[in-house]
Amino acid sequence: MSETSATFVIVGGGIAGVTCAETLAFYTPTESIILLSESALVKTVVNLRAITQTLSDFNIEESHMSNLMQKYPNITVIIDKLDEINSDEQKITTVNKTIINYKFLCLCMGAQPRLIPEAENNPFVIGIRDTDSVESFIQKLKTSKEVAIVGNGGIASELVYKIEDTKVHWIIKDKHITATFIDPGAAEFLKDRLNNKQKEQSVENAQFSQRMRYETDQNIKKAGAALGPDWYKHLDIKGALNVPETVQIHYETCIQSIKTTQNGLIVKLTDDSEISCDLLVSATGVTPNSHFKISQPLHTSQDGGILVNEFMQSSNENIYVAGDLCTANWQYAPQWFPMKLWTQARQMGCYAARAMSSKHLNEEIYQDFCFEVFTHTTRLFGFKVVLLGLHNAQKLGKDYEILFRMTKDVEYIKLVLQNGRLQGAVLIGDTDLEEMCENLILNQIDLSAHKDSLLDPDIDIEDYFD
Ligand code: FAD
Q: What's the distance, CA 254 to chain centroid?
């Protein structure tokens, strides 16, 4: 049993944990920081580019922990796993029996893919989370002729678009695709792309495969953190059919039962139809990794997320939580809401670090500006997608109106207004409207007089609001 101490101890080498460690190293360069990571490869945010005040674009790189320690001499990375927290004595014990004393602890252990209950321990069913699970999926897919994907969020949408050379059954519980992010109109707009996929170049595939192999050092355990924004972009996700893939969408249905046969699965849906497939991908959300031993249990939400206040503090004031593991439990700004996304994992990791360092230095802190408005940018079906504020009219009940402009296969713009004020926006394609929309959401200008011209393509609306 060995023992060590640090002012700040962070558990988890994903986006939230690494961002937290880096931010702490910046704010408190003379304090000791320990990052406990299951893997020697940690996730680092690179190529960070501010698109607007609160919206940024970035890539995630898996880099060896030694790079982090070289860059920040006060960070020590320990490769191990959290076993137990003794919150009364402010110390944790790792699986390999190292005791680490802390002044402040930040838990960033992320979440696990939630497999449909019928599918647990079934070799033909896979959940996608990290590099290992993607590799395993790609291997299994190589011999698959028919794949079923269940789920209607980002992962399922990305996969359905990216998979080649196999028949795909997309099982969704909603009336339209990608419902976690977009409305039925945007879904129709994007669905056209699904039937006419435009794939990335195979040259990039080769380059990325090389990088993945390079990272697969036998001595490095790489399981763990969720993938980064470009996880699928350069991968060859191909099945065993030498004919173009077809996608059949099964709307408003879920899995009723699964029968395993010698060749794969027979999946019965709740609408009583049956699908046979040789691989099933379960992409139905995540469950926070909050099942660890602790002397005084922390307060959690119904989905198992650890509740945090506006300073990312759990019910124990010396234990902070960030990323997929936490549930924001403060009075949200009108146009913000939490979602388990890497954008928010980064923002929360960064803000938890600032909150901890302020507490340590007895400084006052105000909540970060990024929690004023929900922002997310991603690529769906080959399009740039920007989601701002209450883009799906979340929280607005029926009291809102929509302004809308669409040019088939080019752009889809939806503005959500309440009392003439912009509450949210969906911007698909290269619309160049994100900055203006964000400003209009933040300053809540009354747009009633401009509604007719707001989305007129012949009028440069930015001129109105300069
Ligand atoms: P993670 O990245 O999961 O990191 C948690 C870390 O904690 C891991 O390294 C894990 O090994 C470690 N850990 C767990 N338990 C322990 C323990 N006991 N001891 C020590 N370490 C431990 N988000 C988007 O915004 N847009 C998308 O398009 C999108 N697509 C996604 C696609 C896929 C396939 C997946 C899996 C996720 C996607 N997400 C997307 C979600 C996004 O990746 C997560 O929200 C984000 O990575 C959460 O970061 P995190 O640091 O909280 O958790």
A: 23
Confidence at 202, pLDDT banded by 50, 70, 90: very low
Question: What's the rounded Cα separation, in Å, for the pair 461 and 452?
Answer: 11
Candidate from 20-29, 325-334, 449-458 with smallest mean pLDDT: 449-458
Instruction: Give backbone dihedrals phi and psi of 84, rounded to 5 degrees, phi first.
Output: -150, 145
Cβ atoms < 10 Å from Cβ of 290:
21
**Candidates 3.65.10.10, 3.40.190.10, 3.40.50.300, 3.50.50.60; correct CATH number of 3-110+289-372?**
3.50.50.60
Second CATH level (architecture) for the domain 390-465: 2-Layer Sandwich (3.30)
Out of 188-192, 195-199, 315-319, 334-338, least confident range: 195-199
Question: Which of left, alpha, beta for 74 (phi over 0: left; psi -120 to 50: alpha)?
Answer: alpha
> What does the alpha-carbon distance between residue 327 and residue 312 come to, in Å, rounded to a whole number?
9
pTM of the full structure: 0.88
How many A from CA of 465 to the centre of ligand 1? 39
Mean pLDDT of the chain: 87
Residue nearest to atom 32 of ligand 1 (CA): 155
Q: How much distance in Å is there from the Cα of 98 to the middle of ligand 1?
A: 24
